[in-house]
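B., you asked whether I could sanity-check this one before it goes into the benchmark set. Here's the sequence:
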Amino acid sequence: MKDINLVQPVQITASGVKWVVTVPAIWTDPAKAFMRTAALNAGLIDTIQSDRLQLALEPEAACMACENDARHLKEGDEFMILDCGGGTVDITMHKVVRLKPLHLDELCIPAGGPWGSTFVDQQFEVLVRKLIGESAFLRFKPSPYWVELMDTWEIIKTSFADDESRPRSVNFAPVFEVLEDGVKLVELAEAYNAIHNAGLKVRGKSTLLFPPELTKGLILHTVRKIENQVSDLIERNPVGSIFIVGGFAESSTLQNRMKSRFSSDSCKVIVPKHPGVAVLNGAVLFGLDKRVFLSRRARLTYGTSIRKKRSMVHEEKLPPDPDYKIFKQADGTFVEYVCDIFSEILGRGDKIQCGETIQSGNYIPTEPNQRNIFFPLLCVDAPSNTTYHTRGTKQIGTLTVPISNADESVKIYFSFGETELCVEARGSSGISKKLHVDYNFNFI
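And here's what the prediction gave me:
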């Protein structure tokens, strides 16, 4: 902000900016909430629920930036966004509902995993560690010389094509800053080759020649995981186009492998002109108009924990030793309840329209002097209607709903179709309140 104001005639403050922060589509709800908390702590917003902060899912943002590259698409077409970043690979699949203006439905739950370009870097790091030895590496990595070496590797990683036949040269001169006197690179290479049969060669005193098969192996260790995930997804849901975006999409090896394996008469593999900035450019477009996305799919099965009258419970579905409690009612009678019954709100894979709200029951207090109803927000990675008790579920957060008296009933409305979960309570007294979810950050 300070740097921007140095060149702007009109001074900009955090309160005058709408912030769009991109996050992976495979992130959990607590992880997204953590980003909102970080934005609050950084002073970007002044309240935790501020609408001046908009979270955008990275493959969706990239999708908006690819509109010019998707001119061949027509209504009804289905396509994949393969967002290959530094840490994660995010994959979303969409159907074109309308072209002008562009409207999309999400076809399935986003997929992906830790297969970004930094995992290729880790393979290179393992090689260097074994080559120069543990003690030398521990001195080398914190130094600026390590950054210099990684800059060289970055160029090789992105430009290397999997059909190359010539070795790539890497300047290892920075390494000599931490090696003991008298140690020669040729001796290190020979020792490494003797164990790993890597075929490393030395040119001069400080240049290491990487044979193409070795370089290819370092990159393919990660690329194959991406290939397998894409293959699994399109086997279940064939698409007509695959758009590859993200920083790792600059890799020639990744591009060639994806085109070789998946490009056909029925499927086009497309790499935009500047794939590394697709998410950034798309985030701006998303901040201006997020109505492109009509629906999304539930990542998990969501629910809450309730007490239910024992007379209404299917005892055969309960786990061993369930928790029973007896409560005195307002009329003086006593009723036995079963605790920790899972009340499902939304099933995994369910289609949710953006802006749609889902009512989760009609809740009443179980004690005469109760002034709050506490709802644990639970989730489970299981199909809809297969979870009856809360054992085996994970609590991702808590909702606190204030009530005015013991006779008041409360309806909870959830909106899962946005990039962040929104919750509202509506009491029988006519009062509505937007609720803040107290997320469990241990579930990130």
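One thing to flag: The longest strand covers residues 334-346. Otherwise nothing jumped out at me.
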